[in-house]
Design a protein that fits this description.
Elements: H1 3-7, E1 14-16, H2 22-35, E2 40-43, E3 54-58, E4 61-68, E5 74-75, H3 77-90, E6 94-99, E7 102-103, H4 105-114, E8 118-121, H5 123-132, E9 136-138, E10 148-149, H6 155-167, E11 170-171, E12 181-206, E13 209-223, H7 232-239, E14 255-257, H8 264-278, E15 281-286, E16 292-297, E17 304-323, E18 326-334, E19 340-342, E20 363-365, E21 372-374, E22 383-385, E23 392-394, E24 399-403, E25 407-411, H9 413-423, E26 428-429, H10 430-433
Parallel strand pairs: 1-9, 4-6, 5-7, 6-8, 10-17, 11-20, 12-14
Antiparallel strand pairs: 2-3, 3-4, 12-13, 12-17, 15-16, 17-18, 18-19, 20-21, 22-23, 24-25, 24-26
Helix pairs in contact: 3-4
């Protein structure tokens, strides 16, 4: 799936603040202020920032922001004094200090006593601002409380979705497919999955100047156990589903939950490695001596901003159901009312009961014996529609008679008997003469 397809889906944005380093925290703050419309947000150089990490240009003037990612720690008066000096030097209208910790009494008193144009934003206020910007900040210590789940369908809905799925390949007349399906057993396992959303902005220089810029954003899913890429087709399916905060368990007899066992920092590290590999480019450029060189451009960690790691449970279903006269089974990812994604054992359903070949295109359900067969496979046909009443039948239940010597007319048992009585036409069993 292309990144643009992924990004079309509006997934919830959640950020684990405990997993951020200092530079990532600055970019988070810049993102929040930008989303809230504070003005034109620019991050300063990470080295020698001279008391400011972000500069906001607005119609009223410049605002300087100092970011301190000291989780649950105190920010004292020296930080306030340093920012105040920067405000005076750059003639800014105000300053803001943002922290994931809290401010000391001394720092607060110093601002009040000198009536300084400095606003203090601690972790609680930051979380409120982030929420208004559409971002949920989460402490790593509380990550288990923020696990979402894709919706889980009721057994009735699952049975209906199963009918729709089978009807795409198997045709039945006059008895509809749904009258031939009944779920006997359903086992549900909730599997852990991580949804990663990120941005990359990496610039590569040589002595000739900038030779490449990797600027992109995207999202992907990781398996919660192995931290490997989720299957592309499964990820494509999940991306089209809405994320719900609650699981409907009212119609489910049993559910096995596989817990998240990886810590967020471990997930983040793996995600960074994947993003680096995904956005590595091989660039050819001409040097000052007119020689052609090649360079492997690998984004650095500071070039990657992971702005959402969401823990999601995905419902894996194991179904045992009766289809016509036989027991069948299938495994699928459940999408609630959005249908399901079948896994690798759908062949258990779509196999011809006569020749045991897989039904790859269109098959039929025999309305006499209940066999599932293909209509045509190379030179052998195992299923037909009666030429007179259109009933779907298999070759073992079919009869035929000749017309114009070379034309073979296939009929069902009832039509065979009616032809004999009404037109004195004798039909042969198809399985004996074909």
């Amino acid at each position: 799936m292309e990144e643009s397809e992924y990004l079309s889906n509006n997934h919830t944005e959640r950020i684990y603040i405990g997993s951020l380093d200092g530079f990532e925290f600055e970019r988070l703050c810049g993102r929040i202020f930008s989303k809230l419309g504070y003005g034109d947000v620019k991050l300063t150089s990470p080295v020698k920032d001279e008391g400011k990490d972000i500069v906001i240009s607005s119609s009223e003037g410049r605002v300087l922001i100092e970011c301190k990612h000291h989780l649950n720690s105190s920010i004292g008066r020296p930080t306030v004094q340093k920012l105040h000096s920067a405000i005076i030097a750059e003639r800014a209208i105000k300053g803001i200090i943002v922290t994931t910790g809290f401010f000391s009494t001394e720092a607060i008193s110093y601002i009040r006593e000198h009536n300084l144009p400095i606003e203090l934003i601690d972790k609680n206020i930051l979380c409120d601002l982030a929420t208004r910007a559409g971002i949920e900040l989460i402490d790593v210590d509380k990550e288990d409380a923020y696990i979402l789940s894709f919706p889980v369908s009721s057994t009735e809905t699952m049975e209906n979705n199963l009918c729709l799925f089978i009807e795409k390949k198997i045709y039945s007349y006059p008895i509809p497919i749904r009258e031939k399906i009944c779920i006997k057993k359903r086992e549900i396992s909730l599997l852990p999955v991580y949804l990663i959303k990120y941005k990359v902005d990496a610039v590569f220089y040589t002595t000739v100047g900038c030779i490449h810029r990797e600027q992109s954003e995207g999202l992907f899913f990781l398996d919660g156990d192995t931290l490997k890429y989720l299957d592309k087709n499964v990820a494509n399916y999940l991306n089209g589903l809405p994320i719900e905060k609650l699981i409907d368990r009212s119609n489910i007899d049993s559910m096995t939950v596989h817990p998240f066992k990886r810590i967020i920092n471990e997930v983040k590290e793996q995600a960074v490695n994947i993003i680096k590999a995904k956005h590595t480019a091989y660039v050819r450029y001409k040097g000052n001596n007119n020689q052609v060189y090649s360079m492997k451009c690998i984004p650095k960690k500071r070039d990657i901003f992971i702005y959402a790691i969401t823990q999601i449970y995905v419902a894996m279903n194991q179904l045992l159901f009766k289809f016509s006269n036989q027991q069948k089974n299938i495994s699928m990812i459940d999408g609630g009312n959005k249908g399901f994604y079948p896994l690798d054992n759908e062949g258990n359903i779509f196999v011809c009961d006569i020749c045991s070949k897989k039904i790859t295109k269109k098959g039929i359900l025999c309305n006499d014996c209940g066999a599932v067969v293909h209509t045509k496979h190379f030179f052998r046909t195992c299923g037909f529609s009666c030429s007179l009443c259109k009933k779907t039948i298999c070759r073992n239940c079919a009869f035929y008679y000749r017309k114009y010597l070379f034309l073979r007319i296939v009929v069902c048992k009832e039509c065979k008997e009616r032809l004999l009585i009404e037109k004195n036409i004798y039909c042969l069993p198809f399985k004996q003469g074909a």
